[in-house]
Design goal:
Number of helices: 0
Number of strands: 6
Order of helices and strands: EEEEEE
Strand order of the largest sheet: 2-1-6
């Protein structure tokens, strides 16, 4: 996996990481990456908190390849219209 360098700290109270620290990426999520912090605890970082250290941008983990779930958004839900059932016809 790639490495990142911390450039911003959104959680000022966390001792798991500091600006300037480097970490190996353990995984991704739609808003950033997961790392293992200094004490071994898993940490999720936002995209604005780090830069990639990989010299080859082709090897960069592409966060756009992460699949989000738009069906959880009310604005993207669709409805299906089911026609009413017709009474069964009886032979004469």
């Amino acid at each position: 996996m790639n490495k990142i360098k911390i450039i911003k700290k959104n959680d000022e109270y966390s001792s798991e990481y500091q600006i300037g620290d480097t970490f190996k990426i353990e995984g991704t999520w739609y808003g950033g990456v997961h790392i293992i912090g200094k004490t071994g605890a898993p940490v999720s970082l936002d995209k604005d908190e780090y830069i990639y250290l990989d010299a080859d941008p082709e090897n960069k983990i592409d966060s756009s390849s992460v699949i989000s779930h738009p069906e959880s958004s009310a604005s993207t839900q669709t409805s299906t219209v089911i026609p009413e059932a017709q009474p069964a016809s009886t032979p004469p």
